[in-house]
Amino acid sequence: MVRPLIQALYRQPRKQVAPTLGSSAVATFRDRLRGWLVTPEEDGYDTARRVWNGRIDRRPALIAYCANEPDVVSAVRFARECELLTAVRSGGHGCAGAAVCDDGLVIDLSLMKAIEMDAPGRAARAQAGVLWSELDRATQASGLAVPGGTDSEVGIAGLTLGGGNGWLMGLYGATCDNLLAAEVVLADGRSVSTSDAENPDLFWALRGGGGNFGIVTSFRYRLHSVGPTVIGGAVLYAYKDARQVLRGFREFAPTAPDALTVYACLIYDQAQPVVAIAACYAGPLDNAATAVAPLRSWGTIVADQLRPMSYLELQSLFDAARPAGRYAAMRSNFMANLPDEAIEVLIDRCSATPSPLSAVIVEHCHGAIARVAPGRHRVWAAQQPLPSGNPRVLGRRRPQRSQFALGHRLFRRNASVRCRRSLCQFARRGREFPGS
Question: How confident is the model at residue 372 (pLDDT cuts 50, 70, 90)?
């Protein structure tokens, strides 16, 4: 039963469509937009087609900068009428480059920046073009936050629809766990609202289902008290102690309090390999020293950068390590544990990497993000230990692993929602549609 379903979802024809676009159709589409349209002949096209990952070099036939939801509806209808390959871009930060396509239409949401705060009700609504730095500034003004990631330049749309793990996941879960409602434009151009009470199947699928269900134009989030001061940064250890540091991390991570999130990173600092224990403690500051003390006990420390800082500073602390324009490749996998054999492989491969820009990051998902209610679906709820992974990262060419990561029952439910929403009819790749 699974094989025909996989084939239906992932074997989509690729068409060269750019030559079929008539100037009158493009002109009519341009007139409908409150935003603007960029074509290959116009100044600014080369800049407009770029995304965060410099190795992505795709040339869409059209780039539509949408100013509001009606613009998105017009773009979707135009794409259907012209049978255009379609990609959606909000932050454009996705490593796979799914936010841009060759010879098709890029629906760009970056102009849609409205944020509405309801601090007394602990909720916020944000349009899909908002970046995490913008949402964080708006929410922290009231001492609140939406659990996000670890990079302030990422768009809220891609992270939310991909699941969303970050510094607050132990306390408050994944970003998608804190999604209360969304506005979605479907493939037929209809705009629908979705929540636990309205279109609940679509709402279930949006929270980590891998994409291709519709274009989300706005998100309503649950807010939590955070900061304004947290303990953040990293403790850097000598690479010669990498084994004992990673073993210390392995033993400590399952016992960490929910308020403390810890990553083990094999990176280069001033051309020298080091092991960085990156952390965020967002609990009561009276308990901070005791909570983070073990992070300084695993070997020879070459730099101690763990200190009190604002939550806003922490959110942008590592942005400089991931500048736009670099040629980036990324792979991810879920592991049930971190055995000695895996530690040896990580240490050996990282020390042999040809580029000091390479990094290995081991993220421990604990606390609220790991407490998944029965029947609740998100990318972190994989029932299988290894190999599995984020189905959004695995992509269309690895359907068996996507099915394995979600589990058979959840994969079939995910596929059922996808087919009912009919987005496979004109989106080239299943992972393209949510934006990034």
Answer: confident
Judge whether residue 418 has pLDDT over 70: no
**Both tokens assigned to 66:** 């949408």
Residue 429 structure tokens: 């790749």
Looking at residue 92, its amino acid is G
Q: Give the residue carrying structure tokens 């692993």.
A: 401
pLDDT at position 413: 52
DSSP track, 43-74: TTHHHHT--SSTT-----SEEEE-SSHHHHHH
Asked if the model's pLDDT at residue 218 lies above 60, the reply is yes
- What letter does residue 287 receive in the DSSP assignment? G
Q: Looking at domain 115-225+393-425, which of 3.40.50.460, 3.10.620.30, 3.30.930.10, 3.30.465.10 is its CATH number? A: 3.30.465.10
Considering the domain delimited by 229-369, tell me its CATH architecture. 3-Layer(aba) Sandwich (3.40)
Residue 191's CB: how many other CB atoms inside 10 A?
A: 16
Q: Does residue 402 contact residue 408 with C-beta atoms inside 8 Å? A: no
What is the three-class DSSP state of 404? helix
The values of phi and psi at residue 214, to 5°, are 155, 175
* Bond from prior residue into 434 cis (ω within 30 degrees of 0): no
What tens digit of pLDDT does each residue of 140-166 get? Answer: 999 999 999 999 999 999 999 988 999
Instruction: Name residue 232's amino acid.
Output: G
User: Residue 422 pLDDT > 60, yes or no?
Assistant: no
Least confident range from 57-71, 86-100, 167-181, 418-432: namely: 418-432
In one-letter notation, the amino acid at residue 226 is V
171-175, 210-214, 326-330, 404-408: which has the minimum mean pLDDT?
404-408
pLDDT score for 73: 97
Q: Six-digit token pair at 41?
A: 């002949």
The amino acid present at 14, given as its one-letter code, is R
